[in-house]
Design brief:
alpha+beta, Bacterial Protein-export protein SecB, four-stranded antiparallel sheet, 4 strands
């Protein structure tokens, strides 16, 4: 009887079959460290998709659509930043990602609007804080959108859609002091109290 393989062992065996000449390296537990950019909370303000009835899965130009991530040209995205005036290390980032394809070009049209609260630790130098926070915070929210979109479209008629891997190294914000948003404070939800009713 063949022994039951653990998930890691099964992946090793599969990788060895696919790439017999490749070597596998493993990291150590202490190689993972806490990041200076901490995601305190995030939520979706909008997350939706709609089936495009004009899409033809049998068309030649759509044969490789489900085996590769979406093209960046088919996406529209925007990032906004709000800084807490009392604490510049507390920031709110808003990321919007949506499809901008012609009818019949994609199986679904979708929209995602995600908001994340981040705290930059004191170990992050002041002179590098803006760039480090902008690049990493946007990437973290983008990854959350990708996973949510895969799960959402996975319940549709066609295979799930995967956003491409991107970076935000060129992300820059135009300073508009008069339009600066105030970061809403994170407050715990009030607990519901049960009122005792007197028996007559």
């Amino acid at each position: 009887m063949k022994p039951i393989l653990t998930c890691a062992a099964w992946l090793d065996e599969l990788f060895a079959q696919l790439f017999p000449e490749a070597s596998i390296s493993r990291s150590k537990d202490h190689d993972m460290q806490i990041s200076a950019i901490q995601l305190e909370q995030y939520f979706f303000k909008r997350l939706s998709f709609e089936l495009d009835n004009e899409f033809d899965a049998e068309a030649p130009q759509n044969q490789d659509l489900f085996s590769t991530p979406l093209s960046l040209e088919l996406l529209h995205w925007n990032v906004e930043l709000a800084v807490n005036p009392q604490n510049s290390r507390q920031r709110m980032y808003t990321l919007e990602v949506s499809s901008q394809a012609a009818p019949g070009q994609l199986p679904y049209s979708f929209q995602a609007h995600i908001i994340g609260y981040f705290l930059i630790g004191e170990e992050c130098p002041e002179e590098n804080m803006d760039r480090v926070a902008d690049v990493n915070s946007a990437a973290i929210l983008y990854s959350a959108v990708r996973e949510a979109l895969v799960a959402l479209t996975g319940r549709g008629l066609y295979p799930p859609m995967m956003l491409p891997t991107v970076h935000f190294l060129d992300l820059k914000f135009e300073p508009h002091v008069e339009e600066t948003k105030t970061v809403p404070a994170l407050e715990p939800k009030p607990k519901r109290s049960r009122k005792a009713t007197a028996k007559k």
